[in-house]
Amino acid sequence: SSNGSGEKERTLGIIKPDGVSGNYTDRIRKVILESGFHINKEMIIQLDEDNAADFYAEHSSKSFFTSLIKYMTSGPVLVMILEKEDAVAHWRHLIGPTDAGKAKITHPQSIRAMCGVDLEKNCVHGSDSHQSAQREIAFFFKETPPDEAVRKHDEL
Ligand code: RTP
Ligand code: MG
Prior knowledge:
The chain is α+β, with helices and mostly antiparallel strands. Helices cover about 45% and strands about 15% of the residues. The chain has helices at about 15-20, 25-35, 50-55, 65-70, 85-95, 100-105, 110-115, 130-140, 145-155; strands at about 10-15, 40-45, 75-85, 125.
């Protein structure tokens, strides 16, 4: 794990809309479990534009942002907390490079090679650091404290 003590680490995995609609969920879950991950929690959710824009806020100034939001809201996604030693790095390795078209050539055993199509439609997400993982897990699974919910509502 990132703390080097052999403790388990958590990362966030998402099966994106094309992965869910293409019926890859069971095959991806099989790879996850055979790779030694524990699926700590999972949830199917339909993201709205605000959710997706918030989740991918780091990309808000990129040329592909509008298209990314359209893609991520095009159908339900399966969100999972994945747990094992060094989970962030291992999950990133397992999913393969961002461009699924290239992954089919350079990383044929990767999940993106199995179910992705191109640079955008790459069927899965993985947190890119321990810090991102914590933020992303909280984004989907942490209960919002009541006063925080009120504050957020007031800001809208
Ligand atoms: P992710 O965050 O979804 O796990 O993917 P990643 O780290 O491998 O790639 P990232 O750079 O964070 O990009 C986020 C997602 O945006 C879409 N994308 N489209 N058209 C493009 O140039 C482009 N580049 C990225 C992909 O769906 C990518 O996973
Ligand atoms: Mg990323």
